[in-house]
Design a protein that fits this description.
Radius of gyration: 29 Å
Shape: elongated
Strand order of the largest sheet: 3-1-2-4-5
Number of strands: 7
Number of helices: 2
Strand content: 5-15%
Largest sheet: 5 strands, mixed
Length: 196
């Protein structure tokens, strides 16, 4: 009776496939697909982060343009989005996009609503707009309303118009309260015009 197992010195024909060869081929394909898909996911997440950083920066620039036309005063809490969109492309998305940014919106730092930009020291370190979980039509909040992505980052627009991606453990580097001090006292001159 002949054995069904070929002798060890017998070579297989090039067209014959063994289970081991098939398994190795499948494993190689799975590994390559896994690397490709994970790299694609990272790239998509980075792309969304950059898009949202650009959107918050544009909103911030709109607020700064508003201030230039209104005696250096930022808009009030009740109309800041409308004011910003007036000065920039009105088709800009005012809510963040992407899975990491679900249920979030951009909000105005309520401590800066309606005040003069000249009263904000360190504008490159003072938060003007931020990623938040507030759902109002014109969201206004404070540091407690910050929202973070699954990777622990958030997006900020500073009072000088720059935008940053920051992590939770770096929030102490940014200011939320301007140094207000007393309002300048206006006195009337002979023409009835106000003079500080």
């Amino acid at each position: 009776m002949k054995s069904a197992v070929p002798p060890p010195n017998r070579k297989l024909n090039p067209g014959q496939a063994t289970i081991v060869r098939i398994i190795w081929a499948i494993a190689g394909i799975v590994l390559l697909l896994n690397l490709y898909v994970s790299r694609f996911a990272i790239t998509r997440r980075d792309h969304m982060r950059i898009e949202n950083q650009s959107a918050i920066k544009q909103l911030g620039r709109g607020l700064l343009m508003y201030a230039q036309d209104h005696d250096d005063h930022l808009p009030g809490a009740d109309n800041w989005r409308t004011a910003a969109l007036y000065y920039i492309d009105g088709h800009l998305s005012v809510t963040p996009e992407g899975k990491d940014f679900a249920n979030t919106s951009f909000a105005l730092n309520g401590h800066l609503a309606g005040i003069a930009r000249s009263r904000i020291p360190g504008q490159d370190k003072t938060v003007l707009l931020f990623l938040s979980d507030l759902k109002d039509a014109e969201p206004v909040g404070a540091r407690r309303d910050l929202a973070f992505t699954s990777s622990g980052d958030t997006i900020l627009c500073m009072a000088d118009g720059s935008a940053r991606i920051a992590s939770d453990n770096r929030m102490e580097l940014f200011g939320w309260y301007p140094v207000l001090g007393p309002e300048p006292v206006l006195t009337a001159d002979e023409d009835g015009e106000g003079i500080p």
